[in-house]
UniProtKB/TrEMBL annotation:
<protein>
    <submittedName>
        <fullName>Uncharacterized protein</fullName>
    </submittedName>
</protein>
Amino acid sequence: MESARYKLEVLEPTNIQKGKFRPSFVLLDGYLDLFDTIEALINVCILATQGEPYSPPHVKQPGEDIRKTLELVTQLLPFEEGEFLDEVNRLLNKDKS
């Protein structure tokens, strides 16, 4: 059992919410990299919904895959950071007045 603990490395517990996990392999260089990743995921979904009906044989449920991708994208959106940046912008503009 001890050796299995070291093989299960894809998910790691998050300290944000008890009982939740995050992928350990998602490493970003910063916010710009995060935004680029989100944009790429959205673009893939747009292309997938507009493309021809061809789907590779290993893709059993393309609609479900698109849904899961969009759910991941929404989780990656840094709304809290956006709120913080809006507040900083408001404070900076207040100082200019």
